[in-house]
Amino acid sequence: MTHAIAAPGPTRELAEFVAALGFDQLPAEVVAKAKTCILDTIGCCLFGASLPPVRMVAAMAAEEGGVGPAGVFGLPLSTSASQAALVNATAAHSFQLDEIHLEATLHPGSVALPAAFAMSAGMASGAGRALITAMVAGYEVGLRIGVAAKGPMFARGFHNQGTTGVFVAAAAAASMLRLDPGQARHALGIAGSQAAGLMAVQEGAMTKGFHSGRAAQSGVYAAELAQRGYTGIPDVLEARPGGFLSAFAGIQPEPQLTAGLGSRWETLRVGYKPAPASNGSITAMTAMDRIMREHGLSVDDVQDVTAFVSTNTLHHCGWEYDPNRIQGVLSAQMNLRYGIAVMALEREAGVDQFHAARLRDPRILAFIGRVRVQVEPAFDDAEGKFRVACRLVVRCLNGAQHQAEVLYRKGSPEDPMSADELDAKFMSLASKSVDEQAARRIAEMVLGIDRIDCLEELSRLVTPRIA
Question: Which CATH superfamily groups domain 279-406?
Fold first, then answer.
């Protein structure tokens, strides 16, 4: 089967966008958003570097001996761009705190930043602006593909972070290398052939973060190979049979995939996560917190809880929490019932509540037994606008009944986190790998990153050196 290399279509249009995009074309609000995304993702990487699964991946990368100046965040390791992207992207997505574009079901920063930052090593001029431009290129390409594919792809059991994520990383890496339109197109084609990721990881496998790592690494490979003249599927999105959308989602691209490209910025629809849990769990926890605060309830007042959610949320995080099947912390993070239980019991949902030692806590398991999850048809609208919404009903032992409805997750564009909340989140996460002075300097540098020509100092701050 042959494909016309010059044929028009969404793959070509997206590649041309990546090749032509320059920093001066970015609106000020998009630049500001990209800076926030960079800092949030760095924080997630620095926290992730402290976790055993990430350290396993880093140890493997070190043993393989990749040579290069690209630093691994939070660990004393410099390696090749592809290996650094692998470890850093795994770290970024390892604790479910990385930012998300809800409509695309994609965490773009955790693949775009590791890919782009790894390829900034050695740049002597314009590196800060190039990094921002590459981030936006990756976001705009990958998020549009994610929006097009996410419904059918998720229903088939694929994890968008590993599938659609390769396009985020490839576009970001292609932008950093300043590939021409033809090369960028082949980079997308090469990336699409590496797409992979199964959603069954949500029951606790370490592999969920690794999907992000492999997507970032695949994007770096794709751009570097395309730069050398290596070819990929030139119409990878629209090819039929065997193209990305037809194979993974059983659909063909629609005009909306590229509508408004360069004028309507999907980057601005990215939101940030206030808690290390799935989006549906966060809205349910918010509703539980609201009811208990407003009505002065203690956990001993509660007879049972019913969460009314979308069909998507029911399948994604409303499943039964079986202590005999859970594999690790991710099981709790992806489970709405667990989230409601820890919020009711401890009135907060932070890192300490999602810890390996808590997974089979008898008090948590007992409260989970009081939680039911049901579908609310009103949340199953065609556009998925309310797919993480939750209407929570709490019945009390004294016969009283209370309910709260949370339509949007805290941290979403509809209910954004404040600058102070985002700063506190970054400082808390960064503290796992760097001291407060270094963390403050990192934040300061990211705020002015568009005025920085070389990112060597930032790289030193995020990558501890071997004594």
Answer: 2-methylcitrate dehydratase PrpD (3.30.1330.120)
